[in-house]
Write a structure and sequence with these properties.
heterodimer; A: 96 residues; alpha+beta; 3-stranded antiparallel sheet; 25% strand; B: 153 residues; mainly beta; 9-stranded antiparallel sheet; two-stranded antiparallel sheet; 2 helices; 12 strands; globular
């Protein structure tokens, strides 16, 4: 692993268009600012890992049969309609 | 011309190119950029998000509102802008399902829903409060045998 020492206010550049800034250092906590193209997805590692594991767990069930005799879902199905739309709300930017 | 895949689950399947869903980023941690929704049982609440690039990869998904009536999706501004979504965009929402031997153990991932619109799909991180990575799907139906902490509040 590449090891780089940076001070507050200094940056690291990945490739030509991903900039990671050290915004603040306080005890055990480092605040990073990430400036990357919109196409680059940025996750906290623990969330990325949890979702990856759930996706893998879901995919593993592919060899099992889902039960046909299901308990009634809480909402009744309205026939041919495939899925309902859920409105997409915007969350305030996470500041932690 | 139809795309054909040999699926371990469904056998030989021809897929109408118009029903192909492009996932430019794949699913989080999984490969494949082209998927289709398949089902062999139209009455089932579950459909299979089936990878076309890797026919051995398929995940059961469901409409979260069938199970969690107050389920909401909230995106960060960054995600909404990256995906070109605003409040007016109508999207189909699915959650991945982990199927286990007992119904009471079935869970859905409320935290990382899959949004599908205009032939493209993205798995996103849901910022709405109270979302559970492993929300029991049948806790309420089965009479509350499992702790009811996964209904998204």
């Amino acid at each position: 692993m590449l090891n780089i020492t940076r001070r507050r206010g200094e940056r690291v550049v990945l490739g030509d268009d991903v900039f990671i800034s050290v915004l603040e250092v306080s005890g055990q906590t480092v605040r990073l600012g990430i400036d990357a193209p919109r196409s680059v997805r940025v996750y906290r590692e623990e969330i990325w890992l949890e979702v990856k594991r759930e996706n893998e767990a879901a995919a593993q069930a592919a060899s099992a049969e889902l039960p046909k005799d299901m308990p009634a879902p809480l909402k009744t199905d309205s026939g041919d309609e495939e899925t309902r739309s859920v409105s997409i709300n915007r969350a305030p930017r996470a500041e932690d | 011309m139809a795309l054909a895949i040999d699926s371990p689950r469904f056998g030989h399947v021809e897929i109408d190119p118009e029903s192909v869903i492009e996932f430019p980023d794949g699913l989080i941690g999984l490969g494949g950029t082209r998927y289709a929704l398949l089902t062999s049982d139209p009455g089932s609440p579950f459909v299979w998000l089936h990878c076309i690039d890797d026919p051995s990869l398929s995940l059961p998904v469901t409409d979260p509102q069938r199970f969690f009536s107050d389920y909401q999706v909230e995106l960060t501004d960054d995600d909404a802008e990256r995906l070109g979504l605003d409040d007016a965009t109508a999207v189909d929402v699915y959650v991945t399902v982990v199927a286990r031997a007992e119904l009471a153990e079935f869970t859905a991932n409320q935290k990382a829903p899959i949004l599908i619109w205009n032939g493209q799909g993205h798995q996103v991180i849901n910022q709405a409060p109270g979302c559970d990575l492993r929300a029991p799907l049948f806790a309420e139906v089965l009479g509350g045998a499992a702790p009811a902490d996964g209904d998204g509040g």
